[in-house]
Amino acid sequence: MKPSTNRMLNRIKSVYMFINKHGTVTTGELVEEFGITPRTIQRDLNVLVYNDLVKSPSRGKWTTTKKKVKMSS
Fold this sequence. Notes:
Strand order of the largest sheet: 1-3-2
Keywords: Transcription, Transcription regulation
Radius of gyration: 12 Å
Number of helices: 3
InterPro entries: DeoR_HTH (IPR001034), WH-like_DNA-bd_sf (IPR036388), WH_DNA-bd_sf (IPR036390)
Distance between the termini: 15 Å
Helix content: 55-70%
Protein name: DeoR/GlpR family transcriptional regulator of sugar metabolism
Domain HTH deoR-type: 8-63
Organism: Cytobacillus eiseniae
Shape: globular
Strand content: 5-15%
Number of strands: 3
Largest sheet: 3 strands, antiparallel
């Protein structure tokens, strides 16, 4: 796997774990926490939404779904 792909997957996993830990977070909180652009965070969130791992109960806010997730390192 390319190093850039591995970095992206690790970042997406970290974003998911952050949302899961904090319950509901805003896009702005994610941008601040991870120090990346709003566009990059939106791409990461799109991957998580596509896989039914997060949802947006209201515009700009994110929470995890009930889907079971098995975490590996």
